[in-house]
Design brief:
globular; six-stranded mixed β-sheet; alpha/beta; four-stranded antiparallel β-sheet; about 240 residues
Length: about 240
C-alpha cells in the first residue's frame, strides 16, 4: 500500500510564503479533495509533491522514503504522477500515440507492448477511435487522454489539477465515475484540486482546505463544508 506523508511542508518565494507548515497524508485507494480560494497554494502544493519545486523546509515521505530533495523524474519513477491545468498534448501524435509515450519511455516497453497496453488503458477510460489527431478530440476526451498519459507511467499516486474545468454537467458526471473506477480498480491514491464543490462532495473520501498556504481544515466533505473558517475563506472566492 502506497502512502504519502508531508510534515510541516513550507515553500517560500522570496518574501511570499506560498505553502506554510502543511502536514497531511494520503494512501492507496483514497480520493482526497484539495480545495481553497484562488491563490490558496493548491497548485504549488502539488508542485512540491511532484518535485517541480523543492521545499524551503519540512519533509515529504513516500512509501517510507524521504523524497523531499529528490528531482521530479525520480519521484515519477517511484510512482507519483500528476496532470496540469493547461493541457499540452503532442499535436504531431494521435490519441493513442500520446498515451503510448509513458509505456515507451517511463516503463521502457516495446512498441508492440506499449501499443497494446495503451489500447487497453484507453478502453478503460472510455476512449475510442484512437487514431484521431488530438485536435479532433472533445474537451472530455482530451482530459481523459491526459489522465491516461499520466497513468501510462504506472503511478501509485495521481494528482488531478482542475481536471473538471470546462466540462458540462454530463461530462463531469462521466469524469467523476471514471476517477472513482480508477481509484478502486487500481488501488490508486488520487488527489483532486477542484473549485466545484458539487464535484468534491460526490467524488472525495476526505478533504483538506488551504487558505493563504495554510491547512485550515481536514475531514469528510460533510464536516469540512460546515466549518465556519472554511465558509469564511470562500466568501467572495471561487467556490
Amino acid at each position: 500500500m502506497a502512502e504519502l506523508i508531508t510534515k510541516k511542508l513550507t515553500k517560500q518565494f522570496g518574501g511570499l510564503v506560498a505553502v506554510n507548515d502543511v502536514s497531511f497524508s494520503i494512501k492507496s485507494g483514497e480520493i482526497l479533495g484539495i480545495i481553497g480560494p484562488n491563490g490558496a497554494g493548491k497548485t504549488t502544493f502539488i508542485n512540491l509533491i511532484s518535485g517541480i519545486y523543492l521545499p524551503t523546509s519540512g519533509s515529504i515521505g513516500f512509501d517510507g522514503v524521504d523524497i523531499s530533495q529528490k528531482p521530479a523524474h525520480e519521484r515519477a519513477r517511484m510512482g507519483i504522477a500528476r496532470t496540469y491545468q493547461l493541457i499540452h498534448p503532442r499535436e504531431n501524435l494521435d490519441l493513442l500515440e500520446n498515451v503510448m509515450i509513458g509505456f515507451l519511455f517511463a516503463q521502457k516497453q516495446s512498441i508492440a507492448k506499449a501499443r497494446a497496453n495503451a489500447e487497453a488503458l484507453c478502453g478503460t477510460m472510455g476512449l475510442a477511435n484512437l487514431h484521431r489527431p488530438v485536435s479532433k478530440l472533445t474537451m472530455l476526451e482530451t482530459k481523459k487522454m491526459e489522465i491516461a498519459h499520466a497513468l501510462a507511467n504506472g503511478p501509485k499516486l495521481l494528482f488531478l489539477d482542475e481536471v473538471m474545468a470546462g466540462l458540462n454537467s454530463d461530462e463531469t458526471k462521466d469524469m467523476i465515475a471514471t476517477v472513482k473506477q480508477l481509484a478502486k480498480e487500481r488501488n490508486l491514491a488520487v488527489g483532486v484540486v477542484e473549485h466545484v464543490m458539487g464535484v468534491i462532495r460526490e467524488l472525495t473520501d476526505r478533504v483538506i482546505v488551504l487558505e493563504s498556504g495554510e491547512l485550515i481544515a481536514e475531514g469528510p466533505y460533510s464536516v469540512v463544508s460546515k466549518n465556519p473558517r472554511v465558509v469564511q475563506a470562500y466568501l467572495g472566492g471561487a467556490a
